[in-house]
Predict the 3D structure of the following.
Amino acid sequence: MKKITVIIEDGKLDVEFDNFPGDTCSEEENVLRLLLAKMGMQTQVLHSDNKAEPQANHIAEIEKIKS
Amino acid sequence: MLSAQLAAPAILTDLLQKLGVQNPTLAQFIENLDTVPIIRECANHALQAMSTMPGISLDNSIRDYYGHGYKSHASLQLLGALKTSKLKNGIGVMVDSNGCIKFAADTFTNEWRTESARLQKLFQETFLQQVVKAILEVMGYQMQITKDTIKDPESGQEKQVLMIEGVKP
């Protein structure tokens, strides 16, 4: 089972992805960020533990809502 | 009246291009998705959720210092007004035709201003929770939601932490 855990605290999202094979995690995270943007949330990656692609800016562990 | 807003729906072009390579059908779906009705629904859910919080009530009108009310018009209807003992005139929440969330309140006194800012921040938090739940539903996840109240070590004030766990095959 693919699992996504979202912790919401102080207007920030901490998102973890588990059991996603290959780069499907990246696809899922892109979908999440795009849908957040379509809902008016400005996403900004504050931290990433994606060791494979640290420069890619697309593992959004923490998203920040625009205040 | 104070006016502030959450951003209108946007599209992240670089991410859309990446997703277009990974999953063109899904990318097309997201690009064409009209989220304004979903934003309105999430805002309504957030207002309902806040009305169950201690000391906050939901009403359908706001007033200014002189007792004048806000008149909704077709493009900017008042979804609801949050009221507390410190802000009896209320803070109104509206969603415009572009999906921008707007707030309106009379902030003539310091107390009104502070309470208005507190309610606005609380609404943004609650709205974000509703948005994440809606998005995970759209993405096909079955969710379990856990709420917890913790004490902020810096301010000493209690704050809400929400954990959403979603699974799908």
Remarks:
- Strands of chain B lie at 2-6, 57-59, 78-84, 87-95, 101-105, 142-151, 158-168.
